[in-house]
Specification:
The chain has 242 residues and is of the alpha/beta class. The chain folds into two domains: 10-133 and 217-229, Rossmann fold (3-Layer(aba) Sandwich); 144-208, ACT domain (Alpha-Beta Plaits, 2-Layer Sandwich), CATH 3.30.70. It has seven helices and 15 strands. The radius of gyration is 18 Å and the shape is globular. The chain binds ribulose-5-phosphate.
């Protein structure tokens, strides 16, 4: 018997993103301090939080991980505070480009990896929102984003290329795209080979000029994942949410 898997339409994928984004709000409680991630999936979480504040009187404060998320949250009337004022956050809700069976992540498809990592490292928990295309056995089919300083960035790229020959600077037209921090992004095609993400992260962070690496290792506590059959929450048994 042959089984044909039909590709998901864009609208189906968008619906899954919305379902995951909204379902994650079940973890939100009155008075929480929440890290607000970046991307097209967590956008639905932020929209839902705004709705609940308006319609249900929910009271929360947020710390945004990008200027795009700041603008969205502000437009919805979500009060924002700097991390230094918020202290330790109750939870961060964010998207991911890939997650593996150990809940290690590739992030940075939206270029916000450095701020995202700063915020998640100041939080008691991390919840990822994703559709099931993001679930992988081994990280790396999605090109690994690395934020680098613009200063002599080609030299930094050469050093990164010693272990990842496929590293290219992310461009918008002819010019490199500039992150919220004034950095550039290198996208590195490892292929699905990143079996030891912690070692790779350390190795890359050792290169001068590398600001941050889009590997989030040992920090994700659960994934709210939407698939065509429904939404499931995958909980990291070694994580902080159990
Ligand atoms: C931004 C990110 C995003 O969370 C990641 O790229 C997933 O985005 P999307 O939900 O749009 O697929 O890491 O830096």
């Amino acid at each position: 018997m042959s089984i044909f898997l039909l590709p998901l339409h864009v609208s189906d994928v968008e619906a899954l993103k919305q379902q995951a984004g909204i379902a994650a709000c079940d973890f939100v409680r009155e008075g929480m301090k929440i890290g607000l991630g970046t991307g097209s999936t967590v956008r639905y979480t932020v929209l839902e939080l705004g709705r609940r504040m308006q319609e249900e009187g929910l009271s929360i404060v947020g710390v945004p991980t990008s200027e795009a998320t700041r603008e969205l949250a502000e437009s919805l009337g979500i009060p924002l505070v700097p991390l230094v004022e918020a202290g330790v956050l109750d939870i961060v809700i964010d998207g991911a480009d890939e997650f593996d069976p150990d809940y290690n992540l590739i992030k940075g498809g939206g270029g916000a990896l450095t701020r995202e990592k700063i915020v998640v490292q100041s939080s008691r928990g991390m919840l990822v929102v994703a559709d099931d295309r993001k679930q992988v056995d081994v990280l790396g089919a999605f090109d690994l984003p690395i934020e680098v300083l613009p200063f002599e960035w080609q030299r930094t790229a050469d050093r990164v290329a010693e272990i990842c020959p496929g590293a290219v600077v992310r461009r918008g037209g002819d010019e490199p795209i500039i992150t919220d921090n004034g950095g550039y992004i290198l996208d590195c095609s490892f292929g699905p080979t990143i079996a030891n993400p912690r070692e790779l992260e350390k190795f890359l962070l050792d290169i001068a000029g590398v600001v941050q690496v889009g590997l989030f290792v040992g920090i994700c506590d659960a994934v709210v994942m939407a698939a065509s059959g429904g939404v499931v929450t995958l909980v990291n048994q070694g994580g902080r949410l159990i």
